[in-house]
Design a protein that fits this description.
Blueprint (H helix, E strand, L loop, with lengths): L27 E4 L28 H14 L3 E4 L3 E3 L19 E7 L6 H13 L3 E7 L16 E2 L20 E2 L4 H18 L3 E5 L6 H14 L4 E4 L9 H7 L4 E4 L2 H11 L2 H11 L5 E3 L9 H4 L4 H13 L5 E3 L25 H13 L7 E7 L2 E6 L3 E6 L5 E4 L5 E2 L6 E3 L2 E4 L3 E6 L4 H6 L1
Parallel strand pairs: 1-2, 1-12, 2-5, 5-8, 8-9, 9-10, 10-11
Antiparallel strand pairs: 3-4, 6-7, 13-14, 14-15, 15-20, 16-19, 17-20, 18-19
Helix pairs in contact: 1-2, 3-4, 6-7, 6-9, 9-10
Length: 455
């Protein structure tokens, strides 16, 4: 028999009118709330920033205080890792006490985790974001609860490694040894869907990221998205299906139910280009990738090693990767701290604290400029040149991007009248585009004078 948990009583504000990003390819910013900003020391129970697996004190109030800086960076959508109540004890599989600060080890889907704040704090984040013209997207986990949670002890709710009843298909396996919800049972699926949709009603958030979507049945995803659309017809639905790439059958399945799917091909291709400087390979990749407008490219996330770490600490490589991320088709995702050259690393260092005090401000200013200009680059991609370390491509018929991963300046012919807007040293004169080594240029063919002068 399935035992249903009582919904928490919430003092809920009226849901504010949703903010529709006026752009077809919004900039998404992924935040682990606990690692971002400590706005309320009173909820720092168990917090120890010196321990990699402990809570570090970040919370929803701190996130709300920093939202104007994300707006200034050019962010359109703030994506939060799960804010639900997580298990109250650490696990030790990583060799150190590891807590549920990231949000993926739920024990109660109806409450905000006490380390992050309250329902009112979440509503305040959404209201503040809306006031700044940004959306908020919540991470939704339908596949599993936390280790040792009350659900793991109930075989009507879950499969569990402890009982040895895990399956061998993506929908029935116990991912990372976590108890697996029996979502094939409509009673289980209905309750999970109800709890997750209630967060949209309670907070006024604008969409969801479907975590580990390939491990949940297509019928359950379809039901969830269908019910979500009844509440919020313009909700942004992002699907995370590990390993999906543009053109793959898995991506096509995901896109049948979501607005966009995560692109797991981009980070490796951008890293190889930025560190090895082989224009031919990167240009060929961009051609294969095509007009991937419904994909979410990223350099790194909470589930992957940091890009800067993979590049051996080369900040020019990171900047090239960010320039590519900002200008290819799709909905680019920035992982918190990349704009400040957060060191990151392998897990758990890829989840380190936001370096507000000692981050690279020069990098952040360059990223701001990138994001202020990226919306000029629309339409399908067409490779114009690939030589040495220089790739030049056109978006639509009015924007040209040059990315030079080589050590020295590189030039290619470029007919017509162009204006270079990025200001990283690229020039266009006498029918020739020159891009300095380890740098980039963004050129516009037709510029509204007043807009151009304001950049």
């Amino acid at each position: 028999m399935i035992r249903l948990l009582p919904l928490a009583l919430v003092a809920c504000a009226s849901i504010p009118r949703p903010i529709r990003a006026p752009l077809s390819s919004p900039v998404i910013y992924l935040v682990i709330v606990d690692r971002f900003e400590n706005g309320d020391p009173k909820n720092d129970r168990d917090a120890d920033p010196a321990q990699p697996g402990a809570y570090h004190g970040g919370d929803l109030r701190g996130l709300r205080e920093r939202l104007p800086e994300l707006k200034a960076l050019g962010v359109d959508v703030v994506l939060l890792t799960p804010i639900v109540d997580n298990i109250d004890a650490p696990v030790s599989g990583g060799g150190f006490p590891d807590w549920g600060y990231h949000g993926y080890w739920a024990q109660d889907f109806t409450r905000v985790d006490e380390h992050l704040g309250t329902d009112r704090d979440l509503v305040a984040v959404v209201d503040e974001a809306h006031g700044l013209g940004m959306r908020v997207v919540l991470d939704v986990v339908l596949n599993h609860p936390g280790y040792g949670s009350r659900w793991e002890r109930d075989p009507a709710w879950t499969r569990s490694p402890a009982r040895g009843d895990c399956g061998h298909t993506p929908e029935t396996e116990c991912l990372h040894g976590l108890p697996d919800f029996r979502t094939e049972d409509p009673r289980v699926a209905d309750k999970l869907i109800e709890w997750q949709l209630d967060w949209i009603r309670r907070s006024g958030a604008d969409g969801v990221r479907l975590d580990a979507a390939r491990h949940v049945g297509d019928d359950v995803i379809a039901r969830f998205v269908g019910e979500l659309r009844k509440i919020r017809p313009d909700a942004l639905v992002l699907s995370e299906n590990w390993g999906t790439t543009p053109g793959s059958p898995a991506a096509a399945r995901a896109l049948a139910r979501a607005d966009a799917v995560f692109d797991f091909s981009f980070a490796d291709a951008a890293l190889a280009f930025a560190t090895r400087g082989r224009a031919e390979d990167f240009a060929a990749y961009l051609e294969r990738r095509g007009d991937a407008a419904r994909f979410v490219p990223f350099l790194d996330t909470h589930d992957t090693p940091g890009f800067l770490h993979r590049a051996g600490g080369d900040r020019d490589a990171l900047l090239l990767g960010l320039a590519a991320l900002a200008t290819v088709p799709g909905m680019p995702l920035l992982y918190y701290g990349d704009e400040l050259a957060r060191a990151g690393g392998e897990w758990p260092a890829n989840r380190s604290d936001m370096p507000w005090a000692d981050g690279d401000e020069r990098m952040r200013e360059k990223v701001k400029k990138l994001m202020s200009l990226r919306h000029l680059a629309t339409g399908p991609i067409r490779i114009l040149a690939r030589t040495g370390g220089l790739v030049v491509f056109e978006r639509g018929d009015g924007t040209v991007i040059g990315l030079n991963a080589g050590p020295g300046p590189a030039s290619v012919p470029l007919a017509g009248k162009w204006h270079e807007l990025l200001g990283w040293g690229a020039t266009v004169a006498n029918g020739t585009l020159m891009v300095p080594g380890r740098s980039a240029g963004l050129l516009l063919k037709r510029v509204i004078p007043l807009y151009w002068k304001s950049l």
